[in-house]
Amino acid sequence: MAIISALLIAAVVAVLAGAMLTRQSVFTRSLEAEQLRIQGQWLLQGGLEHSRQMLWDARRKDVLTRLDQPWARAQVGAFAGRIEDEQGKFNLRNLVNRQQVDAEQLQSFERLCRLIGVDPAVSRRISQRVIASYVPPARYPMLRSLDDLSGIEGLDPVVLQRMQAYISVLPGPTWVNGNTASAEVLSAVVPQLSLAQAHGLVAERDSGQWFINRGDFVNRLRLPQVVVDAVQVGITSEWFRLQGQARREQRRVTIDALLHRPEDREPRVIWSRVGV
């Protein structure tokens, strides 16, 4: 009987010990996961601050915003990311100016959609959605990013992803930066400029012949019929998008942020999204 009791006690102790070890293992894994999450957050914050500093340093050194500046190079290491000039894209907010539809900007948007292969019916739905968000009385919430358009009929994820390279959503109307815009965007905002001519202009620019002002940009179009005051293309930018990730072991944390760099102040974060 004593032997049976001893065996029972040993079995109970073994079960309890196993349960305690299991709980301890779960706790340890949870603690490790939390530590990795915190480390990832710190890496993201470091990447964000480094990006802000690069943008500010570039602004203090040169009034021009160009693609050969340090901020335009991909960041690698514990934090990997890229900064994009959102003024090198067509800003959907330009479709509405002073609470009214801007007909010229609408035509530019439609031209751009044709150039990048967006169905005309879909482009009309996009412009209608944007206009309905900013012309009183607004029927939809204001847009924060292109992702807010994902529910539009006919706009599939592949097309939406393609649009990211050419179209932005900013808090207010902006000019396009001729030093960072693609040939497609430049051809869209300068009606007389063909896509082939725009490609030639961009190739010349990217070889190191950056535009120094709006007049320089218009002169190099070699289109006498284009009036300087009618071209809303500049040579500086205030709005940038940071997209990056930090990886610790098997855990990956991502960040997507919009940065505003005024002429006289350090860049600040307008909004950011962090994901795991």
From TrEMBL:
- Which InterPro entries does the record cross-reference, listed alphabetically? GspK, GspK_central_sf, Pilin-like, RuvA_2-like, T2SSK_SAM-like_1st, T2SSK_SAM-like_2nd
UniProt main location, coarse: membrane
Q: Keywords on this record?
A: Cell inner membrane, Cell membrane, Membrane, Protein transport, Transmembrane, Transmembrane helix, Transport
Please name the GO terms of the biological process aspect recorded for this protein, alphabetically: protein secretion
Q: What is this protein called?
A: Type II secretion system protein K
Give the protein family. Answer: Belongs to the GSP K family.
Listed PANTHER family: TYPE II SECRETION SYSTEM PROTEIN K, TYPE II SECRETION SYSTEM PROTEIN K-RELATED
Task: Name all T2SS protein K second SAM-like domain ranges.
Answer: 176-235
Would the keyword Cell inner membrane be found if you checked this record's keyword annotation? yes
Q: Which domain of life is it from?
A: Bacteria
State where the protein is found: Cell inner membrane
Domain T2SS protein K first SAM-like per the UniProt entry, residue ranges: 88-171
Cellular component GO terms, alphabetically? Answer: plasma membrane
